[in-house]
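Feature request, filed as a ticket because there's no other form

It would be nice if the structure record came with a short human-readable summary line next to the tokens. Right now we just get the raw output. Example of a typical job, pasted below so the devs can see what we mean:
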Amino acid sequence: MPGKKRNKQHRIGDEALDLFRSILPKTKAFDIVFTEESRDYGIDGHIQIFINDEHTGNVPRVQIKGNETGEYIDKGKTLRFSLDLDSAFFLIEQAQDPTALIVVDNDKKAVYWHAIQTSLEARDALERRLVESKAKNPSITVHIDTQKNRLTPDNYQGLYAYFQEARLKLAKKIMLRTKTDKTLSEGVKHLNEVERQIYELEGFDRVFRKGNIPTPGTVFSIETSDGKNIDYFPNKSFRPDLVPKVNLRTKFSTKTKEGVEKYKAFRRAVQEGKGSVELDSEYIDSYEMTIGSQVFDNSKSGGKTSISIGPSKNKQVVYLSNGVDELEHQVEIWGEDGAFVIQSLEGQPLHIGLKLKMGEMSAKFNFGINPDLMTNASHHLRMLDFIRNRKELIISFTDPDGFKRKLFGGEINVPSLVTEDQYRFAKALAEIEQTSGVPIPFPLPDKLTREDITNIFWIHRIMTQGKIVQKITLSFTLQNKPPEHVEKDKYMSMTQTPPEVYLFGRPYVMPGFTQTISGKITKLETPAGKDKPSYKLEMEEAEIAIKRTTT
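Raw output as currently delivered:
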């Protein structure tokens, strides 16, 4: 008697699970561990994420849907997938942990993920289906970008970012429920209505601006009645006739200094594309903006209209990373001539300038350092380490929700700004400072003598090695009668507490240390004509030692 055959759908599902496991990243830098769960509750398993062998503390879920052959549209750029209504409702409305929909094409051996919990398209489809008449096999259709959302061992960052976004959205649901004291379903419905209170303009995609930074690619922005900024950029359905058109009639008084200055600023912004100007109702006679079929005007504004023309510069704290170290940095950010510009504020030891043309793969970039603004030798060395032989730069900012977002990232083709000799000298200074615990005064002299450089490396050897042997010349004056041992070919030892050396012609005292110089006097001079005995001596092999006397 033949055995019981395996269900076809089970076979497809098992193949999909095996394929999903096989493409998960498995490196020290980023590792995903999948654990299968019971499939009775709409979840196939959970994943644990490790970064640099450390658990992130997050345990998101996945629902895996297998297909023998996927349905592709838009020349293969989009995967269209039909999700049954029960699964859609569970993932969008009921799941309380960050959960991703995983769609597997068994034939192509390809795995894709969908942002089911944060997708407005999926939520809209679900709500429409719930109010429609009953269908035989109710489902919703979702669309997946086959390039951006394909999961591979090297392309997992998008999925990780989605889990973070989903966690934030779920937290907002809970907060909303607490604040409104309503049922969760009522709170979710209210949240959806709030999220849809935005202007939908034909031919444009839009996003709520995070913080003060315009979204890269923005061509224009609109401020909502509650003070939020919406940034717009062209989408696939964009046409030239959808470009915003503005009819503006202004009025300026030439009898006041403020009116004249405002007029000049307005003319430069419009005619030359330089600078920016803000006009309130005092300077606006009328305006009308047409975008596609929608018209915005000041007929119902009650005289409170304001318009900003030209690039608006926003001050922002960003984080600069070279892949090894990260620095906090203050910049101005604005857009001009179709480009995204980032420029350092003055008064910082590090200076960056970035101009990124929208739609282009390369950017104009400059990178510099200002030694006059260093505070000490260790600070100087850190700045040199940051820019020395680095080819990567990542600029990030913290959004209002506390998440760090990448603003710009890529390779930088900048020749090394620091020679090997400069770096060795800066490192020697920093190690003297760190060993002694006494800051080296900055800035350094504009010009360094050969004696300055030799002296620094000499002191560095003593401080880092504790003892050196070398030829030395000493000049000193005794306060009392010279002891008998100050004679040529005799052994002599001198102690100084605390040591006082000279850096760049200035005394550098190191409290808590003692310096000892001892050796055989190989040459001795006794200058005549002084009240107290003075000597100039040489030691061919003097032992110079320095040690800490206090802790």
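Something like this underneath would help us a lot:
Residues 69 and 107 are 6 Å apart (CA to CA).
The radius of gyration is 35 Å.
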